[in-house]
Design brief:
The complex is a heterodimer of chains A (about 350) and B (about 400). With about 350 residues, chain A is an alpha/beta fold. Chain A is built from 11 helices and 8 strands. With about 400 residues, chain B is α/β, with parallel strands linked by helices. Classes of the chains: A alpha/beta (about 350), B alpha/beta (about 400). Chains A and B meet through helix 2, strand 3, helix 3, helix 5 and helix 7 of A and helix 7, strand 4, helix 8, helix 10 and strand 11 of B.
Amino acid sequence: MASRKEGTGSSAASSSSTTGAAGKGKGKGGSGDSAVKQVQIDGLVVLKIIKHYQEEGQGTEVVQGVLLGLVVEDRLEITNCFPFPQHTEDDADFDEVQYQMEMMRSLRHVNIDHLHVGWYQSTYYGSFVTRALLDSQFSYQHAIEESVVLIYDPIKTAQGSLSLKAYRLTPKLMEVCKEKDFSPEALKKGNITFEHMFEEVPIVIKNSHLINVLMWELEKKSAVADKHELLSLASSNHLGKTLQLLMDRVDEMSQDIVKYNTYMRNTSKQQQQKHQYQQRRQQENMQRQSRGEPPLPEEDLSKLFKPHQPPARMDSLLIAGSQINTYCQNIKEFTAQNLGKLFMAQALQEYNN
Amino acid sequence: MVLLMFSNSLPSAPRSFSLDKMATPAVPASAPPATPSEAPAAASSPASASAPAPAPASASAPAPSPAPAPAPSPAPASSSDPAAAAATTAAPGQTPASAPAPAQTPAQSLSGPALPGPFPGGRVVRLHPVILASIVDSYERRNEGAARVIGTLLGTVDKHSVEVTNCFSVPHNESEDEVAVDMEFAKNMYELHKKVSPNELILGWYATGHDITEHSVLIHEYYSREAPNPIHLTVDTSLQNGRMSIKAYVSTLMGVPGRTMGVMFTPLTVKYTYYDTERIGVDLIMKTCFSPNRVIGLSSDLQQVGGASARIQDALSTVLQYAEDVLSGKVSADNTVGRFLMSLVNQVPKIVPEDFETMLNSNINDLLMVTYLANLTQSQIALNEKLVNL
């Protein structure tokens, strides 16, 4: 994409300065720490993402958009964003590229940063670790080293606190994706576990002075919020849904483990059979030699024993592992909050009596 | 880039057309019978009408005594209402609904065929905070030498109000005598935005700066071709009077009938609406006002609960202070406030302690069990990874 190329061109300069500043002196994608230690978001971007989901996202559909900004030292500053239309028609692909190019060209006219630095996506109860996300993020990170994916959780936000997280792929995972080799051996070699797939980058929100003035104005003029969802105790619905999704994932994972075990068993059985066959061959050859007959030709063992196809590990296990991990994290955060609230309610009741 | 150049060839144009303080209804009140014939003519050629219009209108405008706008509205509204009802050629009885608002003028819609009536949807403009943040941001990124920025407002029209939900800035050049706005750009951007949200219509335009200039009139002209009766929003980024005032206007025709008509911007009420999630987002962003380098991080969950309860604590202490003041006689008691306090105290549910203990314990047990399961699952998958990688 032309836009990404020029983004790459300009961010190549910035990323080389980044790596230079970090004192590594290696090229793009060097091993070690990743190039982005912190993500700084403008308040405007947060509001736009919220608005986009609120207006266009229903139910389990995800809404996506592009993040624009620039890289400063080891910080990724996101200064603006624009949403992507939903996938409705079949010719959406071509329109997407063109839409993006047009948008960025137009935004450049009004002095908005037109550097593509990442993308955002909404999620449903925290289930965002999918193959699609991995692929997209890989292509982004491959083109632009510092890109992140922002995951916005609208349901958790509606419960009282903004839930926005930034993720990147670890350099290890980038290596594996580059090879496009997802077999178990390659993964073992790379020593990748689900913990090493995504790394979360801390987010800070920064506003300019003028926006601060605007905030003061709004505070004066708008009504006081009368809903305090954060302190509501009736949030077991959320917990129920998350647990349901967790159970589904665990089921999938157990199925996959069974498959993998079968594969291992089959492979080892095959090895044994090969071994036996070889031994028999040798014995026969020895016998023949003792009788003075020509030895049987060596047959190609691989034709006799076709090796089993190892099951694709990447899709199921790692993502299930990583996704399950995310769910568990969410659950733990949620229970921590609720425990606090329950204890507060208890204190209130004790005082009452 | 197709530019549409407006040249301001007015001989003696007055400085500004934001005549908030002028007796807006007084002038057209005398005009209604003759204006119906003017309305379609004015609608068909808005460009020619308003360009020479301000000159004679300025002569007539200072004539009525400047009374504050809201005050005379009830009287002339009634007189102009029957005329308005008769006057609107395309309005199927929409004017009486919008009569009670301040500064009502008879139905002089600038655009002919589209939405009927003086102002579609009443007199209230609802703004989302994302608009204002966008406007401020584009102001900060303006070109060198540009004093202000303009852009298009998008949103939806409701029966009672107009809701502005999106906006984008449009490049323009402004100098003493001429204004150039990039229309092509505006059209393109609108098309792009339509792909994402097909329900948004062009509602009007915004400008930063604290006053309405003649250029505004001309730009408003253009926008009235795009949308029926566009809104004009001003955001005062120059912080006059130490405040960032946000005002909305709609333009109306005024002037002596039979002569060329002028354009006047009448103010509208601005309200801020939030989606729930937006409210939460704004609350969070507002916290940057308090930190020294305007940076805040996203806090962990327990901290958030702590923050929310601190807020409630503040509210409670205010209430307590009030109660003590009333008791000590400093403040006179107010019955309605007393009733609210009563309902507040009664909202804490009265449960038999044993029942509450049972409920509390069962809830805590549930949560602890779920935490235990989550931890177990996590250790299980970690173990699984280790085993597989052997």
